[in-house]
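Handout for the seminar on molecular recognition.
Each group receives one record of this type.
Step one: identify the two inputs.
Step two: read the structure output and locate the region that could contact pyridoxal-5'-phosphate.
Step three: write two sentences on what you found, then compare them with the reference statements printed after the record.
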Amino acid sequence: MVAINHVSIDLDAIEHNYHVIRHLVKKNIRILGVVKADAYGHGLVPVSLRLAKAGIDCLGVFEIDEGILLRNAGINIPILVMMGITHDDINDTVKYNLTPFIYRIDILRLLSRTSLKKGNMTPIHLKVDTGMTRLGIDMKDITLFINEIKENKGIRLEGIGSHLSVADIPGHPFTEKQIKRFQKLIQIAKAAGFKDTVFHIDSSGAVLDTKSCSIPNENSMVRPGLLLYGCAPNEHIKGVQTLKQAMTFKTEIISIREVVPNIPIGYGCTYVTNARRLIATIPVGYDDGYSRLLSNNAEALVHNKRVPVVGTVCMNMTMLDVSHIRDVKIGDEVILVGSQGSEEITLTELADKAGTISYEVMCSIGKSNKRIYSSGKKLDLNLGTDLERK
Ligand SMILES: *Cc1c(COP(=O)(O)O)cnc(C)c1O
């Protein structure tokens, strides 16, 4: 049976967005595509396979299991495990050649010992906290870790990374503070003899805001996630317009009824008709990732036109006012996210209405629905000439 609700993922759009990023950053900067959280609800394996094929340098997952899935899918580019690893993960880290973020001495030593035993040298990236206060070693412990890395011959320091707290606001003073600390870190690492180390601190917001993207180092790398999926953390940063949203969320009308004035609709009677209305029901609700905060507060597309959500979003159903849609009927396609004709409902639009961010909307919609993948369309690479060098 074909599911009435489905999310379609346009892999060409993801590849397009990768090329947009490639175009935005300097030529010698590496790109790590963040595919944690099931590629932000877009599907870990299909998205990663496409990015690897497109030539991305590296992938970033959250925990080790995701890395193992990617290795089993045949991906052999470097994979950064951004949560880091626990004692239980040491053997698999070596076995599957995964690159963990390291911020614990005990893990560093154990990983080195295990790697040596297996005749390996495991690449690691040091995770340093420059102000986010989430994960990473303190700036003051850098020398301690650098000395440990030199002593433990089973590991190789391949990179040093940190994360920005306010990457979504261009020119924020806190970002400047973090970048300054990071630059100091680069100096310390270089002075300690780590010449080929890759340094990375920029997520999507910083990639768009090219000021912070320019860490003066040949080996720098950026770590965009959101941009790959066609959204921006801030719509007002330049470069956003060239992105293509990869996710479309579709359903169909399963019921239509004509109601007279003064009729309440749905749970809590939160909407009451003020005239004769045509009300359509769709089989999508908060269980399908369509937030209850969108009750009386969002629009969908039917016959290339916007129609409002009326009443409260239920667990698996939602009502739409389709009074102004001519010849509307059961079975007609409804777009909750994506485009139809010249109209588009973006993930950012829904996020704004639900009081959250596009990240959360794509994660929940992507994971709650059957996903289908589309590809094969001609890529629109009309972004400038240096894209040709690939
Ligand atoms: C999620 C994440 C990213 C990607 O952030 P975006 O804003 O989606 O680009 C980069 N680095 C780390 C450490 C992350 O956790």
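Reference statements: Confidence is low (pLDDT under 50) at residues 378-390. Residues 34, 36, 82, 163, 203-204, 223-226, 233 surround pyridoxal-5'-phosphate (CB under 6 Å).
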